[in-house]
């Protein structure tokens, strides 16, 4: 075992690793990774290697020590193999039936698509992927000998992985902002008269999931520059709101290649790169943007054949791809289920009965801009290595690999940057005017698929055909601050509004979200801001919407009938927060505002584009119609709370909890709770957190570099038996953000410090952990 008897610099550590690996038995160059993994408090790995393959080896190995079954389950999903092991009617974590999921992912991750993506990766990224797979497989072998975690069940579906599997996971992430929201619609699309479709009952659930996309994958971000930060250097708050389970669950880690790379933060499963984090020079984060990353095309079908469509008057056949999925029957035997996936030149045909119908006249094709984005891994690799804000910005503008998020960053010098530069179809207002269907359902962009003039525009300066070039996308660099909470680019800083973009990119005619208004209120003025100020934006758990309408509700209560006085008492006693000690008034407030949201005329002052930070506001309880709505909503809330099993004296921390029962602060983002949490009913009087504040990071730069604090709200490990399954969750509940050890001195001084060096050349011993 290699051990460190004294503190080592990165340079000396690299030399030691090189010397150590030189003493190992000779191996082919492609399989000669060596890596040091040092663990600190909460089980956070600090991974050091001499090259990318070794770094990936360490990431895959460490991740599999903490989340083996989670990744194995996701690999099963993206390979379209759930029905093989769990049957067609079983459910995925997203509550999709296995068969629909398998058909979709078998189509999405075809051998040709995966091969082309992998081939497009530069050598360093390919080495990271190959190393990750090898490291994961080593940990799998070790853990299988020790006994797999309970989360792996029988373990028959847990297998070694390859670089191709990691590409499939990446393509799944890319599709999240587009075709991934149409899984059932793609898997069930069949021409009229072709026989039974997949059960239509799942489409309502699919619509609900599409509506929840930004809710469950939201985020807050604030970058404070030299003019406003307390010490004149850059300051960043990263507060992504992502799922607490499954394939979008963050993992905290520190990656180092001495002399080349030193970056820390969090990454999504299967990625050997940091998605949100910091290095010696800058810190960055992301928020899910409001841009549109796909469009639909309404196909005019050939009257003679509903599997042909007319383009500029010419009849063209829909391409057919046979997708085959193995399905385990009730008797345990496997059978093959086949479907034809139809595609026009725009993309696959999708079908939602009653919404996007495929009849003898028309059908709908979906074109997802991110399916051609092979640059996403290279993008984050370059961000990880950026040594200046200019380098980060130049990378994003040139590669255009960011899929569906904004980028917010700050550097040591105190320059704050906002970029709404993701992969967006080049459809400008002129094209919308001439090609879009005004009767399109919901907010979907539906273009005319019968005219080639309605193809996405092509710009030679864009990174791929059919997307907006960087020069036509919003960007803002300032020395006071920039911020975003899943609003359009418009008011990243109200002093310099960003307007004039395609509606697919950003709009300036819609109300801000309540979290965005809360942030702008906290950031207004000229007072200097420190780390504690940004931390309190999250940990105060303030319900911003209460400041706008609670006084009006209490006024209504003064004249309300006796049948709602219990609710009025709870509102009067409520502290206006979503904290652990907050009362049931929070639940009633949420129920009331959810009901009133269906009636925009309930506001006393309507939204005014000239005053977006302060409108809409006030509840018009002086109007009889509004009083009636409030009364009806109050009665419904009282009934709902009683039926759920919540006692009148219950505290929020007794209601909203993690899977292990740890109380979780925070609340619904629609109420303006910056510490947004999305929870679902989970037993009598309980709610289970499924998404919300995930990786919480505060970075303050000084003359000596970054100082960071934060935590991973759901903890490092998804395995219930792990010592790191809930330790950070408990710290989050107590609002105790830990110092994030980044320097050698901080890492070595950590009370939980331990380390191990492993190599592909030494696969015999079970590594210490």
From TrEMBL:
The keyword Cytoplasm does not apply. One of its GO terms (biological process) is antibiotic biosynthetic process. Residues 1-26 form the signal peptide. The keyword Hydrolase applies. It is found in: Periplasm. Keywords: Hydrolase, Periplasm, Signal, Zymogen. It holds the Pfam family Penicil_amidase. One of its GO terms (cellular component) is periplasmic space. InterPro entries: Ntn_hydrolases_N, Penicillin_amidase_A-knob, Penicillin_amidase_dom1, Penicillin_amidase_N_B-knob, S45. It comes from the Bacteria. CDD domains: Ntn_CA. One of its GO terms (molecular function) is hydrolase activity, acting on carbon-nitrogen (but not peptide) bonds, in linear amides. Belongs to the peptidase S45 family. This is Acylase.
